Amino acid sequence: MDNEIKTPVKNFIRNIIDDDLNTGKHTNIVTRFPPEPNGYLHIGHAKSICLNFGLARSYSGKCHLRFDDTNPVKEDTEYVESIMEDVRWLGWDWGDNLFYASDYFEQLYEYAEILIRDGKAFVCDLNMEELRQYRGTLTVPGKNSPYRDRSVEENLDLFRRMRAGEFPDGSKSLRAKIDMASPNLNMRDPVIYRIKKTDHHRTGDSWQIYPMYDYTHCISDALEGITHSICTLEFEDHRPLYDWFLDQLPVPCHPRQIEFARLNLSYTVMSKRLLLELVKNNYVNGWDDPRMPTIAGMRRRGFTPEAIREFADRIGVAKANSMVDFELLNFCVREDLNKKALRRMAVMDPIKLTIRNYPEGKIEELDAENNPEDPSAGNRRITFSRNLFIEREDFMEQPVKGWFRLAPGTEVRLKHAYYVTCEELTKDAEGNVTELICSYDPASRGGWSQDGRKVKGTIHWVCAETAVNLETRLYDQLFTIPDLGDIEEGKSYLDYLNPDSLVVNTKALGESSLANTEPGTHFQFLRLGYFLADKEYSPEKPVFNRVTTLRDSWAKQKNKQ
Q: Please, which residues bridge with residue 210 across strands?
């Protein structure tokens, strides 16, 4: 385990666990993270992962990774593998505690027969539309199915024939017999099994019927000895059903379900259905598109597991839903990368700068620190010559008040190099500045003048002779509004996709050390932001993703409060 152990912050879930330990209800804590393998995990799942694994670690317990794989139509081994990779990448390890709901299919079936024998389940012939009609509404009670009073013998016979594959998909279901007048719609004779003649990614074609999530989940928890079944608030209304199933069956234990607020993050969506739509309709470039809130996307963009764990710690655990500002996540990323990212110089929109009094043909090497926050990172050598490139936005022909960068007649410091003064400029036929002619002070090597004069402006640069052509991918928020719950009537979330969420720049230039970079390496491009060498990086095509800018608006906002 490489993630730092911090003093846990008390919350209502920890208070419950403490009480259970103090009263002797439990002596060992067992939690679980139970994803459905029907998509890639997102940042909301990361919060749940950190919570469940973090609780198990702090109480010297265990956390199971269990795949609730009860719907073969939507599930795939690709998702299973991606989920395992994400959990490991976040810094957690389930050890020997890897389980699948499909491990329990036979036991689940036997429990269903027990419910039938006890008169608490029946085979129903209503189709999906009829089920909806009979279910009622929040204000209108439901109606009993006309098949509710079938005998135990008939229900057992039909259920076994369902398993044998005698009936077509959707023609029958097994339902619990609870209360069609219950104010909780989940208790109105919910479906336990449905017919799906679809191969399962683990069990193949051995099953023709599959258990429903609500039925499977609680029994899986009980079979694994889970002590605290922690889930998000949308399952609060499902808790009575969770408890009902466990109360009716001879399960080895009765876990306690506890609900907490799910993560809502500004400028994004957390619905697997909507994320899948973005992928399938090519609004993004796959599940690991760096604009996606998936863990795979954030990993590719350059977010670190340490930053995501810190983010999860900072937002904490609450009982009420709220919106979390994406800038808090960016803040955590900056805080982490500031300590570990190597510094390099690059220019996004180059403009030529020529030093007229620097010897032609001369190339010298200068020292530059790799990370001022980490002295152990050491220094690197950078090349300097008569011909340089600087950022176009670092020059202003007619400077405004307070301008401290380059302008005609002004002097600035070139980072790690010399003082230069702009003396002339050249323009093209359209009036665009194409070259700055400057002079330099040879006595200011290293960026400091021997006569003690002060220069307020410092700009970055690259050497023209050794510069590397870069492709930079500048990522921004995927949507234009912070809360996708505020969509105008008649519009969909797709109407709010940000057209500038990805800007590809192929004219960027970087210092020579960026020519041979290991994919996955983080850098801070001075004054530009944090970047990651993309997985597509090659010496022939150096590709860098902007992780986040250097702007820290979240911290500034918090300081004003």
A: 194
Domain span including residue 276: 12-102+215-331
Sheet holding 121-124, edge to edge: 121-124, 173-176, 191-195, 209-211
Which token pair is 388? 């340089």
Q: CA triplet 253, 68, 120: central angle to 5 degrees? A: 55
* 391 labelled catalytic: no
Encode pLDDT of 292-303 as tens digits.
Answer: 999 999 999 999
The owner of tokens 């996606």 is: 292
Provide the token pair at 22.
């103090």
For 13, list phi and psi in degrees, rounded to 5.
-70, -45
| Residues 457 and 485 occupy one common structural domain | no
Q: Choose the catalytic residue: 36, 327, 391, 411.
A: 36
Instruction: Establish whether 272 is a catalytic residue.
Output: yes
- The C-alpha atoms of residue 148 and residue 546 are separated, in whole angstroms, by 60
pLDDT tens, 325-365? Answer: 999 999 999 999 999 999 999 999 999 999 999 999 999 99
Residues 97 and 121 in one domain: no
Nearest to 298 by CA among 31, 27, 38, 41: 41
CA–CA dist 391, 348 (Å, integer) = 7
Considering the candidates 143, 160, 262, 352, report the single residue annotated as catalytic. 262
Q: What is the number of residues in the chain?
A: 561
Q: Which of 57, 172, 175, 272 is catalytic?
A: 272
Q: Is the pLDDT of residue 469 over 70?
A: yes
Give the phi and the psi of residue 191 in degrees, each rounded to 5: -70, 135
Instruction: Give the list of residues 6+ apart from residue 315 with CB closer than 8 angstroms, or none.
Output: 47, 263, 324, 328
Flag whether the pTM goes above 0.90.
yes
Res 552 pLDDT > 90: no
Q: Would residue 491 show up in a list of annotated catalytic residues for this protein?
A: no
> Tell me, what CATH number does 479's domain have?
2.40.240.10
Q: Looking at the predicted structure, is the pLDDT value of residue 271 above 60?
A: yes
